Amino acid sequence: MTKIRIAVQKSGRLNEDSLQILKDCGISIDNGKDQLKATAANFPLEVFYLRNGDIPQYLRDGVVDIAIIGDNVLVEKGKDIAVAEKLNFSKCRVSLAVPKGAKYNSVKDFEGKKIATSYPNTVNEYLKSRGVTADLHLINGSVEIAPNIGLAYGICDIVSSGSTLFKNNLKEVEVILKSEAVLAVSPKISDERREILKKIQFRIQSVLQARQNKYILLNAPNDKLEEIISILPGMRSPTVLPLAEEGWSSVHSVIKRDTFWEVIDALKQAGAEGILVCPIEKMVM
User: Fold this and answer.
1) For the segment 69-123, what is each residue's pLDDT rounded down to a tens digit?
2) Which of 260, 238, 270, 262 is closest to 278 using CA atoms?
3) What are the residues whose beta carbons fall under 8 Å from the beta carbon of 259, sequence distance 6 or more?
4) What angle do CA 51, 69, 5 make, to 5 degrees?
C-alpha cells in the first residue's frame, strides 16, 4: 500500500503539537523515544523525525511528501515550497532585539551594526526593503547571548512569550514576520499521495474548526427566544427544543472560542439560564 511520508520536528514544542494534531485526526503513531521514523497503525502514513532546518530540503528533494513546519522556516529556506494548510498553533514571531539599555529609534539604528541571527535571508530581505545595510553574524543556537559577549549589537530570532529575551537583558524592537505551524507540500508529491493528502487535510480542517468553537446549551423563556437566538448564529441556526416546563425551551448552538465570554454575558442579560458549555471534538462542515 502506498503511504504518504510526513516530516515533523525531531524534538521540542512543535514536535509535540504536530503529533497531537495527528492524534486528534485519529491517526495512531508509535512515536517511541529516539525513533527517526515511525509508521501509523491505522492510516497510510509514515512519520520522519527531522531537524527543523533540514525539512525544506527534504521536501524539495521529494524524500518526504508533506511536513508540519514553522512558516518562519519556509520564509528563510523554502519560499518555493507550497503551503496546503495553516494550522493555527506554535505561533511565534521573528524579531529584532537589542540590549535593554540601548536607545532605539528605528530600524535605521542597525545601519553598519552587527546582528547575530539564525535567519540571514529573512533579516537581509527585511533590512534591504528599508534601505539598511548591516553585518550579519550567523549563529545556530543561543543567539541571545551575542550582545552580552560583545559579538553583536543586536539579534534576530524567534520570539514566543519574550521570556528568553527578558532573561538575557534584551528588548524586542522590530517584528519582521509573524509565524505559525503550516502543512507544507513537496513539489514532487505523486498524484496517488496527493489523494491521501486530501484525506489528511479534511481531518485537520475538522479538528481546527472544533478547536475554534464550543458547543453551548441553555434554557430560555419563550418570550425571550427571539432575542437569545439573535445572539447565537450557530452553524446554520440554533436548535430549539421545548422543555417539559411550559413556557421554556432548550437552545443548542455553537459559539466562537475567541468571543466566548462576550456572548455568555449577552445571553445572561437576555434572560438565558442553565448555560452549559462543552468542548467539540470534531466539526465536519
Assistant:
1) 999 999 999 989 999 999 999 999 999 999 998 999 999 999 999 999 999 999 9
2) 260
3) none
4) 80
